[in-house]
Amino acid sequence: MDENLSLKTFVVTMKASKALEEVTKQDIKKHGMRASDFAILEALYNKGRKTIREISESVLISTGSITYVIDKLEKKELLIRVNCPDDRRVVYLEITDKGKEIMDDIFPEHQQVIEELFQGISDSDKKTVIEVLKKVGYKAGEKE
């Protein structure tokens, strides 16, 4: 009987994803931050000002939950809300100087943890994984 490669690929992908998520969560936790806090700050740190909706879509946090996380980060003075002058419905988020200082310390260490996870894997293999996972993601997106 032929083994079901699609099913095996799915299981291996999910296990790898869970393992990667756990390692990165533990790394973020040692800096006294939750994964959702870090994800929002990281997006603002690397991409600059974004709307709440853009952040919600990029970090995969529901719009209901993201408001709570943003409120907490704002209270800690790590980000600010900026109203759009052209559209009252739009609110931008910006990382503050305090938030940037924290990310200047945390992000290089976090990036190193990720580099170590992929150590020994060729750039060619990494590119292949990226291409394949994008195809799977697009295909899954069509099913929604």
Describe the structure.
This protein is mostly helical and 144 residues long. It has one domain (5-143): Winged helix-like DNA-binding domain superfamily/Winged helix DNA-binding domain (Arc Repressor Mutant, subunit A, Orthogonal Bundle). 70% of the residues lie in helices and 8% in strands. The chain has six helices and three strands; from the N terminus they run ααβααββαα. The protein has helices at 5-29, 35-47, 52-59, 63-75, 97-117, 123-143, and strands at 50-51, 79-83, 91-95. The protein has a three-stranded antiparallel β-sheet. α1 crosses α5 and α2 (35-47) packs across α3 (52-59). It is globular, with a radius of gyration of 18 Å. The model has no long low-confidence stretch (mean pLDDT 92). It comes from Oceanobacillus jeddahense. Pfam families: MarR. Keywords: DNA-binding, Transcription, Transcription regulation.
Features:
transcription regulation, WH-like_DNA-bd_sf, three-stranded antiparallel β-sheet, Arc Repressor Mutant, subunit A, mainly alpha, Tscrpt_reg_MarR-type_CS, 144 residues
Write the layout of secondary structure elements.
Elements: H1 5-29, H2 35-47, E1 50-51, H3 52-59, H4 63-75, E2 79-83, E3 91-95, H5 97-117, H6 123-143
Antiparallel strand pairs: 1-3, 2-3
Helix pairs in contact: 1-5, 2-3
What is the compact description of this entry?
The chain is mostly helical and 144 residues long. It is 70% helix and 8% strand.
